[in-house]
User: Fold this.
Amino acid sequence: MKHEIYIQRCIQLAKNGLGTTGSNPMVGSVVVYNNLIIGEGWHYKSGQPHAEVNAINSVKNKALLEKATIYVSLEPCSHFGKTPPCSDLIIHWKIPKVVVGIIDPFLEVAGKGIEKLKKAGCDVIVGVLEKECLELNKRFFTFHTKKRPYIFLKWAETVDGFMAPAYAKGAKREPVWITDAYTKQLVHKQRASEGAILVGTETVIKDNPALNTRLWNGNNPLRVILDLKHRIPQESTIFTDGLSTLIISLVKKKNTNSITYEVVRETENLAKEICAILYKHGILSLIVEGGKQTLETFIEANLWDEAITYKGDQVFFEQGVKAPKLLKKGITSKHKTQNTKITYRND
Assistant:
């Protein structure tokens, strides 16, 4: 029970890195002496010190390390990357006991860190709150085991099940909001937590979205736009605001400072090809935000991990674009306002 308490604290600390660690996992660590936490830390950003380094550095009396236990939510690394191996640091300070939440699936680690610690004489315990540690780094684990990003499907729908109104020719290019301001802020919060956001051609043509985090303090995700035949007008926001954008098409165009073009070979396995492109770019997580055809491309390919739907209080009176249907049972939660959130897991 004692080990679970400290690994739970590691998980809490690790969550501070959500949206900032880039291609690295979220990791938390605590140093315990005589049943007291004497040091703690988490990994904030790729290239910066890992959780174990920050935890050890925060210990004021380093002499206590030789009698302490270090807890870490993910196996300490054993290789030289942008930073030195954390397992070497633990060995250097002669910390006698190491408790690990879960083994790192990254091929450069994958048990090697634990093996190195054991060879140095450390008492190593592995698999404490393993399920919770797996959930913490579901993005990182999916990326390394399935060779694709962790995929969220997301859309809002009306009471009568529509995600967009009937399109009127000549209508102003702007989004039609189904949900309230509070829900929009939650959506932007999630955008700040994920690596990329994907929409299709028609969504950009009709709505001219920015797909940024203007309603939340955080990093903008990489915008991924599906524009197979280059139909999106050049005056669209994605071309003019300077934010990083990846456009996927059938024909290659010259890259610019903010726009990168990638080519798909075919459209039959489009979702799979998009995943391969994003894996190549090191994207750990993706929000597929619309439109209906793009969402259903991933649903039909069964390439998704979670779906999040928000139900507003509007009614489109059976006119417009019907929202996708998922043949799974979702978990419903009520917001502070009238909007309802339903979350599905594709286990």
In short: The chain is about 25% helix and 25% strand. The first strand starts at residue 28 and ends at 33. The longest helix spans residues 2-14.
